[in-house]
Amino acid sequence: MTPLITVKDLNVAYHEKPALWHVNMSIQENSRTAIVGPNGAGKSTLIKSIMKLIRPVSGKIEIEGRDARHALKRVAYVPQKGEVNWDFPATVLDVVLMGRYVHKGWIKRPNRKDESIALSALETMKMEGFRNRQISELSGGQKQRVFIARAIAQDADIYIMDEPLQGIDITTEKLIIDIMKQLQQEGKTFIVVHHHLDTVEEYFDHVVILNKTVIAEGTIGSVWNKKNINRAYYEMSGAHD
Ligand SMILES: Nc1ncnc2c1ncn2[C@@H]1O[C@H](COP(=O)(O)OP(=O)(O)OP(=O)(O)O)[C@@H](O)[C@H]1O
Ligand SMILES: [Mg+2]
């Protein structure tokens, strides 16, 4: 099967210090793929590269065999908590409506249909009661739920989420996993940076184990084992800093 996303020999550096080298990997369509690896392993760097937010030193990222740039409208991205400053004046509903702009361009105002899609995404995340609240006046976990609602409102085919479960309670965690599994049934693909090794098997069906380069990738059954986890978390830790 042709993969949905292919990363070919990706090399990324910040101020000439390598963050990712020789990354070759692929994401299968309709998978729930976890990206795991220790702090500083380059997980966020990898997904920002897929989103074209970072210019790599070299390498290619393709979606369905073409440069990823052509398909980014089909991708919803939830950045890692703390990477976005949401202290500007906007209501919760405004933020979720941003998910609709990819379908409209920046000039057209959202219409009734967009609003009803946004409200239903807020309902899915059990945040509809907060729709007129300023985003800056929410707790960290509530903000996170709103960002996920924004991704749902975008109605993308591919969801790329950077530690969406960070700082949220267990009820919300289960809710997000249920939604992910439900959207997978509808044909969507998920790429999720995930920090809790004990739930990788329960939440995902594919995994990419990363530490600056790909340690292993594939189905959970084929690569999620002690040997690969140890290689990423212990044998390589600090080796390149
Ligand atoms: N904007 C930046 N400028 C300079 N160095 C950076 C920048 N962003 C990341 N780095 C460095 O690149 C490396 C990879 O960072 P990245 O954020 O991709 O790691 P990560 O796997 O997402 O870590 P975490 O689990 O802490 O989120 C780290 O050593 C980090 O310090
Ligand atoms: Mg990160």
Secondary structure layout plus pairing:
Elements: E1 5-14, E2 17-27, E3 32-36, H1 43-50, E4 58-63, E5 66-67, E6 75-78, H2 92-97, H3 112-124, H4 140-154, E7 158-162, H5 170-185, E8 189-193, H6 200-203, E9 206-211, E10 213-219, H7 220-223, H8 226-235
InterPro entries: AAA+_ATPase, ABC_transporter-like_ATP-bd, ABC_transporter-like_CS, Metal_Ion_Import_ABC, P-loop_NTPase
Keywords: ATP-binding, Nucleotide-binding, Transport
Family: Belongs to the ABC transporter superfamily.
Q: Main traits of this protein?
A:
binds magnesium ion; four-stranded antiparallel beta sheet; 241 residues; Rossmann fold; binds adenosine-5'-triphosphate
Beta-strand content: 25-35%
The first-to-last residue Cα distance is: 37 Å
Radius of gyration using CA atoms only: 18 Å
Average the pLDDT over all residues and give the rounded result. 92
Protein name: Metal ABC transporter ATP-binding protein
GO molecular function: ATP binding; ATP hydrolysis activity
Keywords: ATP-binding, Nucleotide-binding, Transport
Organism: Salinicoccus roseus
Account of the protein in words:
- Residues 5-236 form the ABC transporter domain.
- Pfam families: ABC_tran (PF00005).
- GO terms for molecular function: ATP binding; ATP hydrolysis activity.
- By secondary structure, this protein is an alpha/beta fold.
- It has a single domain, classed as P-loop containing nucleotide triphosphate hydrolases (Rossmann fold).
- The protein has helices at residues 43-50, 92-97, 112-124, 140-154, 170-185, 200-203, 220-223, 226-235; strands at 5-14, 17-27, 32-36, 58-63, 66-67, 75-78, 158-162, 189-193, 206-211, 213-219.
- Helix 5 (170-185) links the parallel strand 7 and strand 8 (189-193).
- The longest helix is centred in the C-terminal third of the chain and has 16 residues, at 170-185.
- It is globular.
- The mean pLDDT is 92.
- The structure holds adenosine-5'-triphosphate (ATP) and magnesium ion.
